[in-house]
Amino acid sequence: MIYSHNWSIMDYRDLKSIWGGSMGIFDGFKKKKLLNNGAKLINQKMYEDSLEYFDKALEIDPNFDYAWYNKGYALFNIGNFHEANVSIDKFLEINPENVHVFSALFIKASGLFMLKEYQKQLELSNELIEISENSLEKLYALNIKSNALLKLEQYDESEIIIDNILNEDSESESALVNKATILSEQGNYHEAIVYYENSLEIYNKKISDYNSNKTKGQVLLPEKMLNNILSEIYVNKGKAHQKLQETAKALECYNIALKLDPEYKEAQKAIKLQDVNSYE
Predict the structure, then answer these.
(1) Do residues 31 and 61 lie in contact, with contact meaning Cβ atoms separated by under 8 Å?
(2) Are 108 and 10 in contact (CB under 8 A)?
(3) Which of 27, 108, 38 is nearest to 66 (CA)?
(4) N or C: which end of the chain has fewer CB atoms below 10 A?
(5) Is the pLDDT of residue 205 over 70?
(6) How far is residue 30's CA from residue 131's CA, in Å, rounded to a whole number?
(7) What digits encode the pLDDT tens for the residues 244-255?
(8) Which residues does residue 27 pair with via DSSP β-bridges, in sequence order?
(9) Distance in angstroms (rounded) separating the CA atoms of residues 247 and 279
(10) CA-to-CA distance for 208 and 118, rounded, in angstroms?
(11) β-strands 4-5, 219-220: how paired?
């Protein structure tokens, strides 16, 4: 449940040599222009439209690593996580030593989370920790690992990592959510609710700052993924309220979750169960 990362969108300025091997000058110029046009669309959040440009660039040069990376990033942002990871894998296969490898693996790990492939996410998190070059990247990688461990119900190991993250960054919204989940598992519902509320406050502030262009270099997760994460937080917060017999607060949380993601099954199930209990 990572909220943001300093994503890198690649354009021709990243390339040491746009022409590449025996490629003609015209083709080299054309693929550069296609890459740039696609990158501009990504910066305008027109992710689906950008794909056409990256595909055309790849028709010219199937080994154009930066086109594969940007295609993966665009696919990730429209919620096509499987195909995004296919593109990222192709990028890594072509250029495993690229300076953007951490960002590429981070995208892949986030996609695995949405695909519920938690064991693969856990394995990838160890690689991210190993290649992280600074404290911020390491915190991102540790969050990825704690998320996977939590989903795999390895609570003790996850809690150790979460506490270490919060010691370094007390406003890590992902770590706050995960801490709340563990507290709920332990039956500490009052404390869990506090952590859920703190995480939601940080999420909402970051969303507000992003929408008002107060943040630079940080990009929100795809809307589908972000709404899924927020819905899960509200459902889990609602369940904690329900354990405390705070029915009205629980129902309010479930309704917010459904408003964010009308197809979120856990919210639908929680409301149905709430309705059944109200007639008992």
Answers:
(1) yes
(2) no
(3) 38
(4) C
(5) yes
(6) 34
(7) 999 999 999 999
(8) none
(9) 13
(10) 30
(11) antiparallel
Give the pTM. 0.81
Q: Span 7-12, mean pLDDT?
A: 53
Q: Supply the DSSP symbol for 100.
A: T
Cβ–Cβ under 8 Å, residues 122 and 148: yes
C-alpha torsion 183→233→165→146, nearest 10: 80
Q: Do residues 224 and 113 make contact, with C-beta atoms less than 8 angstroms apart? A: no
State yes or no: pLDDT of 276 exceeds 80.
no
Candidates 25, 6, 9; CA nearest to 17 is 25
What is the pLDDT at residue 29?
84
Beta-carbon neighbour count of residue 147 at 10 Å?
Answer: 27
Question: In this structure, are residues 128 and 105 in contact, taking their beta carbons and an 8 Å threshold?
Answer: yes
Tokens representing residue 269 in the block = 């199930």
What does the pLDDT look like over 128-172, one tens digit per residue? Answer: 999 999 999 999 999 999 999 999 999 999 999 999 999 999 999
Residue 4 has pLDDT above 50, yes or no: no
Give, in order, the Cα–Cα distances in Å from 95 to each of 64, 68, 235, 257. 9, 10, 41, 41
Note every long-range contact of 38-42, with CB atoms under 8 Å and residues 24 or more positions apart, other chains counting: 38/67, 38/70, 38/74, 39/9, 39/10, 39/11, 39/70, 42/9, 42/70, 42/73, 42/74, 42/77
Q: Kind and range of the H or E element at 5?
A: strand 4-5
3-state secondary structure 174-193: HHHHHHHHHHHHCCCHHHHH
